[in-house]
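Form 7-S
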Amino acid sequence: MGTGDNDDGEMSANIDIRGDNGFAEISTFIDNFIKMSTDDFYDRKISAHDKGHGECYADIDSSDKLGYDKIVRGSAMICLQKISQSLQMFHSHEYRNTLSLHLSEVLEEIGVNEDIIMERRRLNMLMENIQTVGYRSMGFNLSVYHLGSQSEGTTTLGLCSDADILHVFYGHNVIQDLSEWKKNKINLLMIQEKENVTPGYCYLQLLRRDKPLFETVIPIDPIVKEHFIKDSSGRILLKNTFLCDLYDNSERHGPSNAVRGEKGYSDIDIVYAMHCNSLPQSASNFLDRHGIGTWPTSEMIRFISNNGCCLVGASSKISTYPELEWRISTSLGERYLMFNLNITQLHCYVLMKIILKQFLTPQSPLSSYMCKTVLLHCIQNTGRNFWKKNNLFTCLTYCLLELQSYIKNENCPHFIIPENNLMAGQFTAEEVKLDILRRISYIIQSDGYKTYHGHLQRHQDQQQALDNLIKTTMHDTNLGHKETALNLLAQCLEQENRPIKALWMYVRSLTQRRRKQRRKASSYTI
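Output:
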C-alpha cells in the first residue's frame, strides 16, 4: 500500500477495499493510521489547548498514548466492519432504506416535521381569519387566504420561501352560464373558447345589470372605464390588470403585488382574485377520476368541487391577447390536497424544492408549483404503501423521473385542469432545456451522494465545503444528534477518498455514542 502526503496534509492511501485483499489492506492501513494519529493526537490537543479549544478533545478518556492506541484500534476494527458492510450494500435495497431514514431524520431536524407543520398551518389559518374579519369590518367584501409553502409547512429557513396571500373578492358575480345571472350585480361571463383562449384561462365578458344579455357599451364610470376593452366581435371584456391597479402602492410581480419583508421577515406576494362558485368544464375529468389507491378520495374531490375556482389577473406565456386572459386558479383546492398528504410526501416535495433551488436555478424556468404538480400526479399513480419514510429516496427518484419526462415533452398538465400545460412557452431556448435534463439525469443516476458531489464547480470549493462542515460539526457545542452528524460526515469523507479523516470521524462518532450511553447509565443509577 503506497502512502504519501496529499494537499490537505492527511495521509493518502490507494486501497482497493472491494477486492479479495481489501480487508488485509485496510488492516495494514489502520496500523499506519494508529501510529500517525496517536502521535498527532497530543500535538493537536496541545495546539488546541493553546488556542482555547481544548474541549474539542475532552471526550476521549485516555491519559497516555497506550490508552489512546487501544481506543483507536478497537474503534477502527468496528469501523472497518462498518465500511465493509456499507460498501456491500451501497447499491442495495438496504442502503436506500437507510439513506431514506437518515434523510427523513435530517428533514425533521430542520423543521419539516409533523409538529412544526401543524403549528405553521394553525398560525396561518388564524392569521387569515383575523385579516378577513379586519377587511370586512372596513366594508370590503373579500376573504384572505394564506397559500404556498409557508401555510403548508413545506419550507425550511434555507429555502427562504415567500408568504403567498390571496385576496378573493366576492363583489362580482362570475358565472359560466347565463342562467346564473343576478339582477343589479356586476355579472361577468367566463369565455373559454378554444380558438383564442389558452386552456386553463378565460376572458371575462361584461353583462347587463338589468337583463341577462351581453353589454355592448363600455361603462362610463371613469374609475372602471379604462379597464374594459371592446373587441372586434363587439364584446366588452375586462382587462386582467383591473384588481391589481386598485392597489398601486407596491411593486408588481407577475399576477401579484410584491411587498418586501422587513429584516427577519419573509417577503409577501399578494394576489388579487375574483371568485367563481363552480369549476370550469375543463376540470370535469378530475371530478370523475380516482387514482391508484383511491387518491384523491371522494371527499377531497367533493370539497374541491364545492369551493369552485378563482380568477387571477395573469395570462399564459403563449397568449394571443395577454391583457385579456385571466388564469383559472384552484389554489384553495390544491391547499386542501396538500393538507391531506403524509409526512413522507411532504418530505419529497421539500427535497424537490431544495434540488430546484440549489442545482437548477436561476437558468431554469421550472417553479416550485411545477414540482408540487408533479408530486400530486405521482401520488395519484401510486399506492398508499409506496409513500413511507424508509422509501423516501425511491419516492424522490420517481418524482424526478416524472419531472424529467414532463420536461422532455414540454408538457406538465395541471393536476385539476389537465388541459392547462404549465410548461407551455417556458423553454424558449433549447440549450436551457438540455442543460436542465442533463442536471436532473445526473441527480437521478447519482445514487444520492453525488447529488452533493457533482455540482460543486471546482474541486477546491468541494474540499473547502467539507472542511467547513467538519469545523462546524466539531466545534458547535449546540449541535444536536452529534453522533449521527459525525457518522454522516465520515461517509462523505469516505466517498471523497479521504480515509484518514473518515476513520477519525467514525471514531469520534463511536466515542460520542459511548458518552451518551454512560450518561444514560448514570442517570438510571441516580
